[in-house]
Amino acid sequence: MGECKVEDMSLAALFEQARKIHLTVTESGDDQDLVKKGCELLGKCEDMINKLGLFSSNETKEDISTANLKYILVPFYLAELTEKLARDERVPILKISQAKLKEFISFCEAMELVPQEELEAFAQGQGASNSFADRRALKIARFRRQRAAEAKLTEIKERKERRGRSTKAAALSTPVEVGEDEQLDDDGEEEREAWLTTISLAICKAFDLLDMLKKEEEMLSAIKEKQLKEGEKEFSEASLDDRTKKAEAWHRDAAARARYTQPATPITCATFAQDVIEGRANVSQAHDHKHQPMIFGPQSLIGGSLTSERERIAAQVFQPAYRMPTMSIEEAGLREMEMMNKWQERNAKMFEEANSAWYKDKPKMGPSEEEEDDGDDAAQEKARAWDDWKDDNPRGAGNKKLTPCG
Fold this sequence. Notes:
Blueprint: H1 3-8, H2 11-28, H3 32-52, H4 66-69, H5 74-83, H6 90-110, H7 116-125, H8 132-173, H9 180-230, H10 232-257, H11 270-277, H12 298-302, H13 309-315, H14 329-355, H15 369-392
Helix pairs in contact: 2-3, 2-5, 3-5, 5-6, 6-9, 8-9, 9-10
């Protein structure tokens, strides 16, 4: 499309074409010719909006008509397309894009469209809070608002499609004139709701994009400053040296790991295998199933032995909140084998006792008749002696001398 035709186009046509280009670039990729054309169309839209004076500083979102709500998105679309421009100097592009985003956010703030927490964070430092917890909470709230806006737009689109199908079906079945004014009012309210939701979604994306562009500008500025101090040649040599060191370290680690790629004797002890994996033991070491309690924390990550009190304390910092096992699987197996052997011995003894009975034992010889007669005679003599003593000593005989004289 030539420049004359662009000049002759209306504001609505310019915006619609620019919006389609923005949607295409966002979904498909960075086609530089298409990006430049979109920036040109959005720039024309911005000039026409300023010339026509569509927005005033003392207006709110209720004062803006539904047909003009969509033009609030022009700076946001222009900022996103400008950020996708490919230039040798990246920093000026980032600054232009950030300026457009700030212009969009300021205008939405004047229209009372920006949430209060975003305004407070933006006032503190352009969207960055002081503490990490505040930044995290802000990003979570922003992400939830973005999801809610996307879901609402999808719902409006589906509702519009269903109403269109039902209207078409009703017109075909009963060709009776319905209230066109009511239908237009419903469409107008739905269109206004859709544009307000789109603006809310764009505000969330604008804050995220502003944070990203700011960090990118800081990184590029730091790299450029380092290049100016040390020189581009020294910087490239340092990068190459760093890459060489990383490659050499990777090859050394690969050579160290190559020993374990060959089939080895299987390790039957789980604790010893864990020690080998974490570097506390070698495969060739002898193992006698004597284990110490496992240590969790930094020491299990870096491997090696504890050489100082500081390392021992650091290794005990992050301990699990639950009770750890006091023995290994092998020790538990040996303990269970010992219990099984004792159980088998006890069962064998009980089985042996259960198989023995009184009728299987040899009969025991009882006392002889002579011994029984001798026992009876002794018992009789003892009984007779006791009777004689009782006769000589009747009951109460010992107290006769204590009775009073008659």
